[in-house]
Amino acid sequence: MTLDEETIAGLEREFAVFVRQDRAASGQLGREVHPDLKVAAYRLLAHLAERGPRRPTELACHVGVTAPTVSRQLQHLEELGLISRVQTLDDGRAYLVRLTEAGHRRVEEVRVARSRRLDKLLGSWAEEEIRTFAELLARFNGSAAAPPPRQCGGEG
User: Distances in Å between the alpha carbon of 28 and those of 23, 37, 42, 103, 155?
Assistant: First the structure.
């Protein structure tokens, strides 16, 4: 199926608006976790909350940054008391990153705030419309998922 240029242009505009609004909202919600927290660092916290302790290399692959970049972000999160490092059992040199109790609490606070925001945004929608939107968005995200630009060792 080939879409006409006007349809594609409209879709691109709407995606751009969505991404801008989501980044702004995520930035605000991230600052609610901690005033010094950056959006990218919040994504790391959310991934740890969802998946549990992870190696820094897996976190770098998940957010699409280099190991030194994720290392700086993790150091900042550790200084804020939101994560801690734990040694792995199989390799004394390696470590996993996990949320602290404060990190779990803060991520949950943001999850609740995001849910409230979505509830307000979709308050006038019928439940079936919301369900359909979620299904279509999941379908789109599934088809848009591309392999990472660099090898991530099958993690992510």
Answer: 9, 10, 11, 17, 29
Q: For residue 21, what are its two tokens? A: 């609004």
DSSP state of 149: S
Number of domains making up the chain: 1
Q: Name the H helices within 34-100.
A: 39-51, 56-63, 67-79
Across the chain, mean pLDDT equals 85
Question: Which of 18-32, 41-55, 105-119 shows the lowest per-residue confidence on average (mean pLDDT)?
Answer: 18-32
What's the token pair of residue 100? 């602290």
Going by C-alpha positions, the residue among 86, 75, 70 that lies closest to residue 36 is 75
Percent of the chain whose pLDDT exceeds 90: 45
Q: Flag whether 8 is in a domain.
A: no
